[in-house]
Write a structure and sequence with these properties.
- The complex is a heterodimer of chains A (about 290) and B (about 350).
- Chain A has a single domain, classed as MetI-like (MetI-like fold, Orthogonal Bundle).
- With about 290 residues, chain A is mainly α.
- Chain A contains twelve helices and no strands.
- The longest helix of chain B has 18 residues.
- Chain B folds into two domains: about 220 residues, 3-Layer(aba) Sandwich (Rossmann fold); about 100 residues, no CATH class.
- The two termini of chain B are about 25 Å apart.
- Chain B is globular and about 75 Å long.
- Chain B is an alpha/beta fold and about 350 residues long.
- Chain B has ten helices and 18 strands.
- Classes of the chains: A mainly alpha (about 290), B alpha/beta (about 350).
- At the A-B interface, helix 8 and helix 9 of A face strand 6, helix 2 and helix 4 of B.
Chain lengths: ~290, ~350
């Protein structure tokens, strides 16, 4: 470079504000899509109507059935889905990919098909499983067992996938240190692996629960109405999604909006409580991340 | 405290073969396993700890064959790379863990005692993520000791520690050996740190033992150029590089002293003033100050030689292209090329 001649200074364009604006617009659009239908529901249903829906025994029965059966579905996910996730994360075996695809299947299959499949498996008289469930006194058609079965089918994969990822993320060396400190495999699982993976697993269980309460497709075939029996001994009712759907089908738009709004409020408060619990650090699955 | 003996221990992980390795770990002794990345150091540790299946040879603890014992039965404190602390437990919870799984009655007392000993009491309720590297090391060692291990194996103890923390860790190791008499086996790729701790060394290369013995023997008789460079010799010439090129006097002098694999010597020291003295003269290639003196690189007979100019220095300091004289006596020059390890125990 020749001495004395300074190169022309390029004016630097400040892209920061535009970049931020772009992010805000894109993120905001999606949030709007989430919020606007909710706003529409609440606009259509005045607050007094929501309150009266909350006091309506029929709505309460549907809500109770929904939370009760989805609770059982989440329990089933704890018992069956977490072990499957652990197996996928920690063991290598033949046919692993097949198992992984099977787990993903309920997520992609239209849920009406799930209902149909379970119908042909368990409800059509003469099939071995029909005979078995009848003999055991656990009929599934229009019972809470049918509701739970559909819910587990469509929602447990989220816990399997989340557990698989969370168990994989636990550092093998931490587990080896625990073994070497005198803990057997089962103790290491209970005291080290599970607590370390718990946060992801809980996220999976929340998704499982959310998917279970929102299920409708399979239920339209297997359990539109739920008759008392088994652990459920309330009045004849439906899960909340089917209940709202039948209100809508019957042309009762204001009630459909009110019950929907009520359900949204409850779900929102529940999720908010969980998040607040996580933020405050009193839930066990966030220990160690936030410091003392 | 137990005596641990590995006899021809060997294993295989996929395509990687390790061994045979012979070890004798006596109470109060420390062994350093040295080697570059991928040499098999961690595999050796995990084999001793019981996480890798032994394919050949055996492992004895006080004469009992424990080759097939489960990791939790071995009473061996394994500290993996990254320490393996439990992120969901406090410092106190980490240290108490081994006592908890043993169902010990004196959990609180013993934990308190260890926390006190390693200056962790004020940190007892913190989680590992909120500790410094040195504090985490202290938690790891306190936790390992809580189990009252018969052997401590530690993968890269000095990793990611600042100078002060390294120094403190050195004191902890010293105390371990003197008071607890626990044999210690550490893995490191840093020879300087290994010399500060261990009395016996094992140099691994591609899963094979390249050298094994105590510090004076290692420094006196490194087996080959790889080991010589690895333990910190700065001037290492293999036979081939001594044979080719312009045969000047210095090269001839070295060749006379070389073993079958070449020759190694540490930096000859030159007085820090004037143009040096001695029979050899080199042309300065670079000079940079270090705490040990001015590190100077010269070229003699096409061979690059590292020298050290001892303080006090007087200006002008040597600069590139200057000529500098140096000398060294025969005892500093180590021939390379024994038939170790086959002919040594």
């Amino acid at each position: 470079m020749s001495a004395g001649v300074a190169p022309p200074r390029r004016r630097r364009v400040r892209t920061g504000p535009y970049w931020l604006a772009l992010q805000l617009v894109l993120a905001g659009s999606l949030l709007l899509l989430f919020i606007l239908p909710v706003v529409a529901l609440f606009t259509y249903a005045p607050f007094s109507r929501i309150l009266s829906a909350a006091g309506d025994p029929a709505v309460r029965a549907a809500l109770w059935l929904t939370f009760f059966s989805s609770g059982i579905a989440v329990l089933a996910a704890v018992v069956f889905a977490i072990p499957l996730g652990y197996l996928l994360a920690r063991r290598s075996f033949r046919g692993r990919s097949v198992v992984e695809s099977l787990v993903a299947l309920p997520v992609v299959v239209p849920h009406l098909l799930v209902g149909l499949g379970l119908f042909f498996l368990l409800v059509v008289p003469g099939t071995p499983l029909y005979r078995l469930t009848t003999a055991l006194g656990l009929p599934v058609y229009d019972t809470i067992w049918g509701v739970v079965l559909v819910m587990v089918f469509v929602s447990a994969p989220y816990t399997v996938l989340a557990s698989d990822l969370s168990f994989r993320a636990v550092d093998e060396r931490v587990l080896e240190a625990a073994r070497s400190l005198g803990a057997g495999s089962a103790t290491v699982f209970l005291l080290v692996t599970l607590p370390l993976a718990l946060r992801g697993i809980v996220a999976g269980l929340l998704l499982t629960w959310a998917r279970a309460v929102s299920e409708i497709g399979g239920l339209l075939i297997l359990a539109i109405y739920v008759l008392p029996g088994g652990p459920y001994n309330g009045p004849v009712t439906s899960t909340i999604s089917v209940y709202i759907y039948s209100l809508f089908q019957g042309g009762d738009l204001a009630d459909a909006a009110a019950v929907s709004s009520l359900f949204l409020l409850i779900a929102f408060v529940l999720f908010l409580l969980v998040r607040l619990g996580e933020r405050s650090g009193w839930v066990p699955w966030r220990r160690g991340e936030l410091g003392p | 405290m137990s005596r641990w003996v590995a006899e021809g221990l060997g294993t295989q992980l996929d395509a990687f073969r390790l061994g045979p390795v012979d070890l004798d770990l006596r109470p109060g002794r420390a062994v350093a396993v040295l080697g570059a990345s991928g040499a098999g150091k961690t595999t050796l540790l995990r084999t001793l700890a019981g996480f890798v299946r032994v394919r050949e040879g055996r492992l004895l603890r006080d004469g009992t064959d424990i080759t097939d014992w489960l990791p939790e039965e071995r009473e061996l404190g394994y500290v993996p790379q990254g320490l393996g602390l439990f992120a969901n437990r406090t410092v106190e919870g980490n240290v108490r863990f081994p006592l908890e799984v043993r169902g010990r009655m004196d959990q609180a007392a013993r934990t308190g005692e260890l926390l006190e000993r390693f200056h962790l009491t004020p940190l007892a309720r913190r989680y590992p993520a909120r500790l410094s590297g040195g504090e985490q090391q202290r938690v790891a060692i306190a936790r390992a000791l809580a189990a009252e291990p018969e052997l401590i194996v530690w993968d890269e103890p000095w990793q990611a520690l600042d100078v002060q923390a390294r120094y403190e860790l050195g004191l902890v190791f010293q105390e371990l050996r003197e008071t607890e008499r626990v044999p210690v086996l550490v893995v490191t790729h840093d020879p300087a740190l290994a010399f500060s701790l261990a009395d016996t060394f094992l140099v691994l290369d591609h899963g094979r033992v390249r050298w094994q013995g105590d510090a004076p023997a290692l420094l006196d008789h490194p087996s080959d150029p790889f080991v010589a460079r690895f333990v910190g010799f700065e001037n290492v010439y293999d036979r081939e590089s001594l044979e080719r090129g312009n045969p000047g006097q210095f090269r001839a002098w070295l060749r006379e002293r070389a073993g079958s694999d070449g020759v190694a010597f540490s930096r000859p020291v030159v007085a820090g003033s004037g143009a040096g003295s001695g029979p050899w003269e080199g042309v300065v290639q670079s000079a940079r100050p270090t705490p040990e003196g001015l590190a100077v690189s010269v070229v003699v007979d096409d061979l690059r030689v590292a020298l050290r100019l001892a303080p006090p220095w007087t200006s002008p300091l040597p600069s590139v292209g200057d000529r500098l004289r140096f000398g060294m006596d025969d005892t500093r020059v180590h021939p390379l090329g024994s038939s170790f390890p086959q002919d040594r125990p």
